[in-house]
Sequence to fold (504 residues):
Amino acid sequence: MTDDQRTEAPRRRQRVTEVEAYGVAPLPPAAQTSGPLDLFRLAFGGANTFATIILGTLPIAYGLGFWAAAAATAAGVVLGALILAPMALFAPRTRTNNAVSSGAHFGVVGRGLGSLLSLLTAVAFFSISVWVSGDAIAGAAARLGLDGGDGVRAAAYGAIALAVFAVCVYGYRFMLLVNKVAVVAGSALMLLGAVAYGGAFDPSYSGTGEYLLGGFWPTWMLAALTIMANPVSFGGFLGDWARYIPASTPVPRLLAAPFLAQLATLLPFGFGVATATLVADPGDYVVGLVSASPGWYAVPLLLVAVIGGLSTGTTALYGTGLDFSSLVPRLNRVQGTVVVGALALVLVFTGAFVFDAVDTINALAILIVLLTSPWMVVLMLGYLFRRGHYLVEDLQVFNEGRRGGAYWFTRGINWRAGAAWGLAAAMGLLFANTPLLVGPLGGLAGGVDLSLPVALVTAAVAYPVALVAAPEPRGVFGPLGPRWVPCAPDPEDAQRPEPEPAAR
Fold:
């Protein structure tokens, strides 16, 4: 059946109780039954969580006062949302996730970079989500007189993780239902927090006076970059959900959904910033928050933790399982989800009870975003240069064990995009100034962390330069040809895709 014939097939929404059958193969157009509102719900629901609240407390923990922390939070959210929004454009056209879509620019083998970055990001944020939600559950239980120590924590971790597994195995529709509930319930419970803590909150809170990086502006910049990590972390996963949106959807609506979803996260971020001023030690926020809570808010706080853990955990683990199955073709989506989920669960328990890796994973999340951001810039520029033109079947060559096609480039790798990303990532690391890593050039701006801006600008310059110095073949561009960059004639020995295996 051709794509045109599939397009004419009636669209049918999969039932919530059906296990999703689709992997990274091109989604049938008839299955693209979602819209930008669904994308908004998933992007907001996945961030309207206790993990986001914890990130919101960090500017206060770094030593900033309330208004400085609020400004850094707003700046990080807005800038991160602007970077994230274009990542919703690929999947409706390619009908697959963003990691596989990146093969159009990095090569069908080189797109493994996107898969690796997505895997690291997902495991890190899944672990953070389970940790903070489990600790909040244990703290709320203790406040209710059910203090069971590490046993309760372990049970909370396991319960959240198993619930996440179940949702991810059922797939997209079940996850969408969970996030529809999470958006409303989580928001209502956080707004109720204004009643619980409003009498004790003082907006004139001026901070500890001891800045984490020694000075106000270096610490403020670190806070903004820490907050920015949250929206940028969704870049690798946005296509997991956007692939269910028809390609005919207007571009402004596709851009608006993730952008507005991230602006809405100012609610959980604001909850974190405000309540962090109430605890004696912002570095031990969960315990302090439970102690500062009125007794009647213990159950709502427990619900915030449970709902939030499910939302963030599912959005992270679902995409990881989906993409892992594309790297190991013998595994389907469900099997890939189970394998990665089991590995992540081992990390959760060993990190919390054996190696005390929680703080390291939190800091590592910033570095993962530093590596992911230039990858996103290359994709965005590639989309513009290609005028949004993608050859759907050619993207699937590597996943199906074949060779050739428009995106084969040199042995499956497009060195132009790879070199631009590598240079940008290296420059970002050189300028890094974080608690985990200080690069050789980290002190050039008086301690202000310039790593992310440097990485973004380097990628935005290096990739077009590479395309001008070594133009890509005409075949990767659409009927109208390239925009703003030159192209080269298609090589006479250009490899057509190998035929699909007979079993297909």
